[in-house]
Design goal:
Elements lengths: L9 H10 L26 H14 L7 H5 L5 H12 L10 H14 L3 H6 L6 H18 L2 E2 L4 E2 L11 H6 L2 H8 L9 H8 L20 H20 L15
Antiparallel strand pairs: 1-2
The structure holds a DNA duplex (21 and 21 nucleotides).
Length: 254
Amino acid sequence: MPPSSYFLSPCLVAQKVRESFTFDFETPMRKPCCDKQGTNKGAWSKQEDQKLIDYIRIHGEGCWRSLPKAAGLHRCGKSCRLRWINYLRPDIKRGNFAQDEEDLIIKLHALLGNRWSLIAGRLPGRTDNEVKNYWNSHIKRKLMKMGIDPNNHKLNQYPHHVGPLNPTTTNSMDVACKLRVCSTDNDDGVSDAASYLEDETPPTGISNLDLDLTIAFPSSPIKNIIEESQQKTASIVTNDEEEQYTVPTLLLFR
DNA sequence: AATACGGCCAACCGCCAGGAG
DNA sequence: TCTCCTGGCGGTTGGCCGTAT
């Protein structure tokens, strides 16, 4: 199957024409971010790492395009940036994710979707790439096993190992409800979705949730996004004839 | 011991947004 | 206002490694 870039929308064609007068449909759509000839690809060697570290230690981050030449690296600027951000930065936390980190990722993903950089921004020392990989390799599977659709955080009708749920119960478990389940104050945090599934008893009073909708975010951009997300969720929920309840709020940060 | 398979993760690719000129 | 350049982002790939057969 040809890459999707072979199917060009009119505006992309226009862009392509601007970019290159030698455009034809056999060549890749875009100019590479840098001159690929003479640049290394693949895994970084220790020497390359050291050069990058040394350079950034002296000159600081930024000017990624000119950095490789200045640092004596045969890499493209993007590659240098990625290597630094995802691996070489001194404040990077390596190793397994703690349970609370995992819980936080799930909660944030429920609110933000695949905005990995924003999610990673809430996890000190973690990179977006790391969070994304962890989500795809661990959490996604875990949620699926629990019968939760990792894309929308809703319960599937027939979870893999728990057995079929009462359809009415399942329908009532929309995003907001699950967020409530996930945001209970006990130590298990999000994992409580599992315990909820296991006892097959929906939390009583779902239709009458009385929860305070406040989220404490230290930085404003993410706050705006969360607020947006909440408004959307609220409108969805209140449009549901059967589910007229107040949208609960995650108290993510205290 | 050899091969197949699956998971993990670093790295790449291409698109997009924003700033500069 | 338009165009170009750059950095940032999310999706995807490919290689390595451990485990199963």
